Every structure is written in C-alpha cells, then in structure tokens.
Amino acid sequence: MDDMKFRRAMGKFATGVTVIATENQEGVHGMTANAFMSVSLDPKLVVISIKENAKILEKIRESQKYSVNILAADQEELSMIFAGQLKEHSEVVFGYLDNQPVIPGALAQVVCEVSHEHIEGDHSLFIGKVTDINLEDEAEPLVFYSGYRTLTEKQPAPL
C-alpha cells in the first residue's frame, strides 16, 4: 500500500492538535502531535505515540515525564513551530505545572508520568499516569482535518 495514500486516509480523521513537552538537563523539548487519546478514567491514563526517529523520543525515555498541551485555535503558529514547519520564530516561553513544562494558553495542560512504553511498528506508545491538569477558559480548539482548521459554533436548533 502506498505510504501517502495511508497518510491522506489518516488525515481524514479530525483530531485536536497537541504539543507534547518534556524537560531534561538540556532544557525543554517539544513536538506537535495529534496521536493522543484518553485511555482510562480509573486510574487516569492517556497515551501518546512518538515516531522512532523523533528527537523527543529519547528525552521522554530519559525524563519519564511529559505534558500534553491541547492547543487553542489561536495557537496554530505554536503547532507549526513544534512541527518544524517554522524555522524562524521568536523563542517559545513555557509555563510549569507539577514541575513540567506546559504551553501557556493551551485549552488543557495534562501532566503525566510514564507508566508503560510499548513499541509498535515505527512508533513508541507512552501510557502516562496523569498527575495534574489545568484547564483554561473556554476557547475554540485547533483542529486537524487534511490541514489545520477551526470549529464554528452551531446555531441552536429551532424549538
């Protein structure tokens, strides 16, 4: 099967956009990802999927912690920075939650400790035990569906 056909098919699944962040002695490291999901409510677990050649992979293995930052619609530029699509940009300033770097203004900031790592195909799946969460005021999310998009409010159904 053609790789691009598979990639285009997966792009037909609308997802939110996140920045995964971790920190080690070299500093803060981040990457844009849409491969994120909730796994369990009790205990509170989430999973992220990181490609084997991603720079952040060894950094998460080393730190055993990461944050998932669910981006707002006005944070598309941050997504592009952490996806390596913008080479020239201003320095990204991180906040901290539970001693982990987070993106200020993200709709949600979820801090995790690695519970398990599973290697599948060309990716590593990190199951994370959620240690803290911060929610921002309601804002529109950044969405990926064959490219970046935003949601529009639906009109209420007539009574």
UniProtKB/TrEMBL annotation:
Coiled coil: none
Position of the signal peptide: none
Cross-referenced Gene3D superfamilies: Electron Transport, Fmn-binding Protein, Chain A (2.30.110.10)
InterPro entries: Flavin_Rdtase-like_dom (IPR002563), NADH-dep_flavin_reductase (IPR050268), Split_barrel_FMN-bd (IPR012349)
Keywords (A to Z) from UniProt: Oxidoreductase
Family matches, as Pfam families: Flavin_Reduct (PF01613)
SUPFAM superfamilies, per database record: FMN-binding split barrel
Residue span(s) of domain Flavin reductase like: 10-150
Record-linked PANTHER family: FLAVIN REDUCTASE (PTHR30466), FMN REDUCTASE (NADH) RUTF (PTHR30466:SF1)
Listed name of the protein: Flavin reductase family protein
